[in-house]
Amino acid sequence: MPSPQVLQPVLKMKVDELFLNWLSEPTTQTILKDYLGLIKSGQSIDLGLGDTKDKRSMTFNENNNVASKRSLTERSSAPLGAPSSPPSTHTLPSGSSGNARVVGPNGRALRRSVSTKKAQVKSEAPVPTALSESIPKFYFPRGRPKANLNIDGLIAKIEKIFSQFPNERATIEDMGKVAKACECPLYWKAPLFNSAGGDRTGFVSVHKFVAMWRKMLQTCHDDVSKFVHLLAKPGCNYLEQEDFIPFLQDVVNSHAGLAFLKEASDFHSRYITTVSHYTYHTKIYFEVSVDLARHNDQAISHKMIERIFSGTVTRDRRLRKDGRLSYADFVWFLISEEDKKTDTSIEYWFRCMDLDGDGVLSMYELEYFYEEQCVKLETMAIEPLPFEDCLCQMLDLVKPEVEGKITLRDLKQCKLSHIFYDTFFNIEKYLDHEQKDPFSVVREAETEGQEISDWEKYAAEEYDILVAEETTTDQYNDG
Questions:
Q1: What does pTM read for this prediction?
Q2: How far apart are CA 59 and CA 101, in angstroms?
Q3: Where is the signal peptide (predicted)?
Q4: Domains in the chain and their CATH numbers?
């Protein structure tokens, strides 16, 4: 039972409502203003209940306001709804007695009467149900619980699988069957194995695994929350880049399509780093020395390369001073360059082009990058479009909210941001866009998301080139 002095939430809401109603009454407002005036003038005022002897008094100085006294006395006997006149500004002569007492209005009685009246009116209406009872739960950070989940039935299936293993212990090779019994994807086998302590002992007993999986079913109610729980460190509800390494290492070791990597163990870490970095951005310490100016046959402008190495979008200062990129920064650059349609890529290139970092691409900044494009076009015997005409085209393309100022939000809302960026710093892709049918570009924008991404296209093309080169080399060696 709650303490008598503590109001229940619903009752407290009602009391607060009645008090606000009383406080908003014109009569109450006038009385409070008069009291405040008396207090400021230093007068003495009695706050009592009718003729009771128990009165509390406040003593002030000699400047008594007779008009206020008369007004308060008359108002205390007037009906609640009677209008009141503002207090007079006349004061007593300085010789007036300083001990004169003002009989104030029956403020407390008035407050009770108003509150009682309001309470009687409000009590006729039904008390509304508490909000916490009428709004259903809508936030499920670990998935919405399933109503008819048969946990004991799922555990029985897992125990049946473990009974097939010696001493009811499963090794990492056996975890594919266990993952299937858990109704999980095949390549969750390593995270399942490690979460049950298999990485420390080399095997998982049925008792440890059942205890782990039962708790998982009781706390995680969808595949996403289960995956995060399996990979994350104990006590964490988020994933870091290194959390993916055991999972990806098992994929490299057991996936049939990656059999060619088994013999190249030195390449394992680079492959895992690339995949995990594509999935999750964090700092990676593998160093790479690469000449970005030669990327894609020198398609990227030197001004943009200088911006990349200036630290705008790179993380490792030590390598940047040496004119090198970390492997993480190179992967980030490559993904952003080959697929400029994603939000992350749009942010990457926006930071590069925003020279003063004010969050807006000004006309000066656009002209700064376009100048080098014009020089490249002239060396190719192609007459460049004047900057003013190019600017009009780009503004029509992006349609910024503020005229003459292009923001990151404008580019994210524009489905043709890749054309915008290529116009200013990638000469090869700019020429490709110029040779395309404008209507086909519009159709591509309308069907965005219905086909594979530009990054997937790039990866497939590079893979085909690699296979062709290896085939040619093998034929030459056999030959």
A1: 0.45
A2: 8
A3: none
A4: 9-126 (no CATH), 152-239 (1.10.238.230), 246-276 (no CATH), 283-448 (1.10.238.10)
